[in-house]
Amino acid sequence: MDYYENRELSWLKFNARVIEEATDTNNPLLERLSFSAIYQSNLDEFFMVRVGSLTDTEKTDKNKKDSKTGMTPAQQLDAIFTAVRRLQPTVEESFKKTMKELSAYGYEHVKIENATKDEQSFLELYFRREIKPFISGLVVNDSLPFPFLKNKELYAVVQLNSKKGVAVGIIPVKHENSERIIPLDAGGKRFILEEEVVLHFAHLMFKGYKVLDRAIIRVTRNADIMISGKGADYRERMEELVAKRKKLAPVRLEISDDFSREALDYICKKIKIKNVRVFTSRIPLDLSYLFSLKELSDDEKLHYPAFPPKKPSVLSESRSVFSQVKSKDILLSYPFESINSSFIRLLQECAVDPKVTSIKITLYRLAKGSKVIDALCTAAENGKEVLVMIELRARFDEANNIEWSKVLQKAGVKVIYGPKDYKAHSKLLLITRKAQGGNFDYLTQVGTGNYNEKTATLYTDIMLLTTDRDIAQDAEKVFNCLQNGTFVEETKKLLVAPLCLRNKILAMMDEQIQISKNGGQGYIGAKVNSLCDKTIMNKLVEASQAGVKIELVVRGICCLIPNVDGFTENITVRSIVGRFLEHSRIYIFGNEKKEQKIYISSADYMSRNTIRRVEVAIPVEDEKLKKRLWDMFTVLMSDNVKARTMMSDGTYLHVVRKEGEEAVNSQEVFYNEACRRLENKQNRQNKTVQKKVTKKRTGKNVKKAENS
After folding, report:
1. What angle, 0 to 180 degrees and rounded to 10, lies between the N-to-C axes of helices 7-23 and 73-102?
2. Cα 21 to chain centroid, rounded
3. pLDDT of residue 595
C-alpha cells in the first residue's frame, strides 16, 4: 500500500539521519566524529541481526513476503545493499572533512607514505618489536586451509605471487598487546592506526613471496539466533548460544579501497559469500577508535557543553525516597535528572531499611559495575526477599546478564528468567514495606529505559514512582506470572503485553475515533522508538480517516507514511536525532484535560513488543505530572533544531525555522528546565532559611529591648 514503508529500508533512513549529524556544522567537531562511529556501529548490528534474519529467511522461505510492502527476502536484501552503497559516499566525505577540520586543533591521521623519514623508521621498528612477535601470517591456497575470520575483527590480506592458482596471505591485526592508535607525537593527536602499519609491512611476514596487492578486510557474521524453551540448564544453554553466535555464517565483507579482483573472488569463495555482499570503504573499516580521540582534547569548542545530570528538584535529601513517593507520585526524566540521586538512592535506602520486606525487579541491560546489582545483593544479604527476573536473551548483553545472574544467586537473590519464547523487556520494580498496624505499603516503579547508570546519561527516558495500590496489585500479577511462566490476562490500571496491552491501546484509539465521528476533536499522540505493528498502524489509518488528529514522534523505524490523501492526511510524523538518544515512550489519548489518558511504557509500537514480549505501560494520573508530560510532548513537536518531518513520499526533511522564530532544541529545553527547577527549589530553601534567621534575630532584639 502507498502509505506503508518497508521496515528495513525505514531503519536505513534512520541511520541516514544519524550520519546527517556527522555533517551538521552546528555540532562540535569531535561530536561529529562520534556520530560517524555511531552510524557504523548501528550498521554493524543491523547486518548482524536484520540482514542475518533475512538471509536465513531467504534460504528457508524465499517466497515469504513483507506484510507491508509485499517484498520478498531477496528483494529486501537487494534494496538494503543498494541503500547502504548510496550512503557510503556521505559517510566517507563527512569523516574526511571532519578530520581535515580537526587538523587546526592538532589532530592528524597520518598515512604511512606521508610520514616523515624518522616516523617511518620508528614505525618499522615498532612493527618489528611490538607487533610482529605477536602475530602470524598464514598463506592460503587450494592446498592449504582457509582460516576462520572472527566477527568484526580486522585482517590484513595480501595477494602473493603463485605459479599455480591464487595464493593469499592473511594476518590478524588484533593481538594480546594491541594498541589500535599508535601515537606519533606526545599528545597522541598525530597518529596512525595499527592495521595500516601491519598492512604496510605485511611483506615482512611472507618471506619468499612477492606481494602483489594488499588490503584490510572485515567480516560481519549473522547474529540472529534465539534459544527457545526453559529448564534447569537454561543458563548453560545460553552460554553455549553466545559461543555459537561467534561462528555463524558471514553476511557482509568489507574491504579497504580497491583490491585484486582475482584475490577478492578467491576470498569470497572461501568464506562462502556472494560478491553483492562485498562493500568497499575508503575510510577505516572500524571507527570505534574515534571515541578515544575525544579524550585527547579538553578544548570546549570541540565538545558539547557539559550537561551533568541534576538532582531531581522534586526529591528532598532529608527524607527517604519511599516516604516522599507515599506523599505523591514522582516523575523523573533522564538524562536531565540524575539516576544516582533518585532511583539508585531508592534501592540503596530500601536495601538497608528494616521495614522493607521484599524487592522485585525486572532487569534487561545493566551497566558495568552496576549499583543496581550492588543494592539488590545488599538487600538479600540483609534478609529481605529479593526476586530478580533477568532476561538472558537481551541481544549482545547475554554474556553480561549470565554473569550478573550468578552474582545475584551467590548473594541469596531468587533469580528467574523470562517466559518461554517471550523476552521480558519490561522495566518494573515493586517494593513492599511494613506500615503501622501490621499493614504494608507498596511502591511501584515503571520506566521507559533500562536500570543502567551509563545509558541513563546518554538516553532520554522517563520513570514513574507511585504507591497506588491498584498498580501494585497489577505489578504483583506480573511478577507472579513471570515466576509461573504464564501471562497477565487482565489488569486494573497497568497495560501488560503480550495479552493486555495492544488490545487496550486499540480500544483507547477507538474512543478517539468515536469522539471525532460525534463531531468532537479526537487526538492521538505517541512518542516511540519504532512504529511497525501493522494492527496499530491500520487503526491509526482508520483514526486519520475519521478525522482524528495524530501526532507521532518516532526516532527510528516508521513504516507508516503520513499525509497520503484518503488515508493518513491527518497524521504527522517527526523524528528527533540529537545529542542524546531518544528512548522514552509516551502514549497520549485525547486532548481534553479531564478525559486525557497518558501512559509511559517500555514498549514500542512494534508487534515484537506489543504481542511477543512482556512489556508494561503505566498510566500517569496525577494532573500535574500529566501536564508535565503533555508539555514535554508539545516541546518535542515544536523542536526546530534536531527534528525532521516525514513527507508523503517517505523522505525526511529538517524542520525549517520560520523567519524570526526562536530556535527550539527539545533536549536543551528539558535540561534547562531541570536546572531551573533545581535553582527555584534552592532559592525557596534559601528564603526559608533567611526568614528563620530574620525571625530569630527579631526575637532577640525584642527581648533586649524589654530587658532594657
Report:
1. 10
2. 16
3. 85
pLDDT for the residue numbered 244: 77
Residue 425 annotated in active site: yes
Euclidean distance between CA atoms 626 and 517, whole angstroms: 26
Superfamily in which the 4-103 domain is placed by CATH: Polyphosphate kinase N-terminal domain (1.20.58.310)
Amino acid residing at 474: D
User: Are the beta carbons of 559 and 5 closer than 8 angstroms?
Assistant: yes
Q: Which of 200, 425, 583, 654 is catalytic?
A: 425
Among 2, 693, 21, 649, CA closest to 304: 21
Beta bridge partners of 217: 155, 255
Sign of CA dihedral 189, 29, 110, 259: positive
CATH topology (fold) of 106-273? polyphosphate kinase like (3.30.1840)
CATH number for the segment(s) 321-488: 3.30.870.10
Give me the pLDDT at residue 704, please. 62
Asked whether the beta carbons of 343 and 367 are under 8 A apart, the reply is: no
Q: How many CA atoms lie within 13 A of 202 on its CB side?
A: 29
Query: Cell numbers at residue 639, please?
Result: 523542536
> Is residue 381 within 8 Å of 347, Cβ to Cβ?
no
**Contact (CB, 8 A) for 112 and 190:** no
- Residue 130: per-residue pLDDT: 94
DSSP secondary structure of 264-303:
HHHHHHHHT--GGGEEEESS-S--TTHHHHHTT---GGGS
CA distance 20 to 30: 14
Please tell us whether the domain made up of 496-664 is placed in CATH 3.30.870.10.
Answer: yes
Quick count: other Cβ atoms within 10 Å of Cβ 226?
Answer: 9
User: Splitting the chain (708 residues) into consecutive groups of 10 residues, what average pLDDT does each group show?
Assistant: 93 98 97 98 96 94 92 97 97 97 97 94 96 94 88 96 89 91 95 97 93 97 73 74 82 94 95 96 97 95 96 95 97 97 98 98 96 98 97 89 94 92 95 94 98 97 98 98 95 98 98 96 97 98 98 98 97 98 98 87 97 97 96 97 97 93 96 94 82 73 62
Q: Is the pTM of this model over 0.90?
A: yes
Long-range contacts (CB closer than 8 Å, 24 or more residues apart) made by 192-196: 192/109, 192/110, 192/111, 192/112, 192/115, 192/123, 193/109, 193/284, 193/289, 194/131, 195/154, 195/156, 195/284, 196/111, 196/112
* C-alpha to C-alpha distance for 391 and 504, rounded to whole angstroms: 25
Taking residue 58's Cβ as centre, other Cβ atoms within 10 Å add up to 17
pLDDT tens per residue across span 489-509: 999 999 999 999 999 999 999
For residue 703, the model assigns a pLDDT of: 62
Residues, the chain, total?
Answer: 708
Q: Give SS3 for 615.
A: strand
